[in-house]
Amino acid sequence: MSTREPVWLRSSYSGSSGDNCVEVAAHQATVLIRDSKCTQKRPLSVSLAAWSAFTTLAAGSTV
């Protein structure tokens, strides 16, 4: 198991004010999702397949 800290990314659509942002990080075989205002809380963890399906649907495509 990796001991590295995840590298968190924020969408460029989030703006520069720092509010209402979701951050994601690839970590081992999962994608971690967290609220940028509450970084100390445990992030949501989803499978790569679930993240792929979500982003495909969010982009307006069909699975």
UniProtKB/TrEMBL annotation:
Alphabetical list of InterPro entries matching this protein: DUF397 (IPR007278)
Domain of life of the organism encoding this protein: Bacteria
Domain DUF397, first and last residues per copy: 7-56
UniProt name for this protein: DUF397 domain-containing protein
